[in-house]
Amino acid sequence: MTDTSLSKLQHEFCLKPNQADSLRIITNDSSNIFEAIEKGQQFVAISAMDQEELNNKGKVATMDANFKELLDFENRVRNQTLTMNALSDRIMAGEKIKDIIVPYKQVQKLFEDKWNNNEKRYNASDKYSTFRQNIWNIHHPDEIMPSLDENEDDDIVMGSTKISLRCPLTTAWLEDPVTSNMCKHTFSKAAITDLLRQSGGSVPCPIPGCNKRIVSLCLIADDTMAERVRRAKERDELNASTTQYFDVE
Ligand SMILES: [Zn+2]
Question: Under which pathway is this protein filed (predicted)?
């Protein structure tokens, strides 16, 4: 092959629609990463609850920083997926992209800037407010958590509602809690699995007002919630035995 034909080939080369498909295949692999990040977040959340119980404020602050770092990481992976999909769409639409690195960096930067420039990114995250709520509940089990954002109006505060530790289906303590990654509602595993089995594998979320559907694939084991239930039960038993003790007099 002569130099001219090689440079001609290089000049004419661009990504084709069938290659765009492989961009999407790459991003399908990221579900494993999300699972690992989720596990990491649950681990940090439980450690933070332990440290709060011991009144180790410094350690709780470190866990808080770790949790935020994991949220940033999660967002970066999500941005990568969005970037790949956006590029794949452009190639499918007939755009001639020669060097994918340049547009990749451009699109990725747009997503990253949007995240990093949002000062309220943590407070606006459901995961972060749940994380803070779990820590708050250690010493204030029956009190509403104050707003994470002091400037926010009280009526739009997120994460200030008490999260029920009872299964909405059985009304008993959550057992092997699983949380839907579509709507963040939590159920006892056996109860929701039974319901799914009776309904052919897919049901509208049983929580009134929730318009998402539940399928078994979207149910994630919720270690943090399991830990909260364990602590709440322990607290209840302790209260019960103390009451009993005082009742004797
Ligand atoms: Zn729901």
Answer: Protein modification; protein sumoylation
Fold of domain 164-249: Herpes Virus-1 (3.30.40)
Q: Would you say how long the chain is, in residues?
A: 249
> Full-prediction pTM beyond 0.90?
no
Distance 185 CA to ligand 1 centre (A): 5
Residue 56 Cα to ligand 1 midpoint, Å, equals 35
Tell me the helix, strand and coil percentages in the chain, rounded to 5.
60, 5, 30
44 burial type by CB count under 10 A (0-12 exposed, 13-18 middle, 19+ buried): buried
The answer to whether residues 168 and 206 touch, using CB atoms and an 8 Å cutoff, is: yes
pLDDT in tens, the chain (249 residues): 556 677 777 777 777 777 777 777 777 777 788 889 999 999 999 999 999 999 999 999 999 999 999 999 999 888 888 888 888 888 888 888 877 888 888 888 888 888 888 878 888 888 998 999 899 988 887 777 777 765 443 333 333 344 578 898 998 899 999 999 999 899 999 999 999 999 899 999 998 889 999 999 999 999 888 988 888 888 778 777 765 555 443
CA dist., res. 64 & res. 45, Å (int): 8
- What is the whole-number distance in angstroms between the Cα of residue 169 and the centre of ligand 1? 12
Q: Identify the CA nearest to 68 among candidates 138, 124, 109.
A: 124
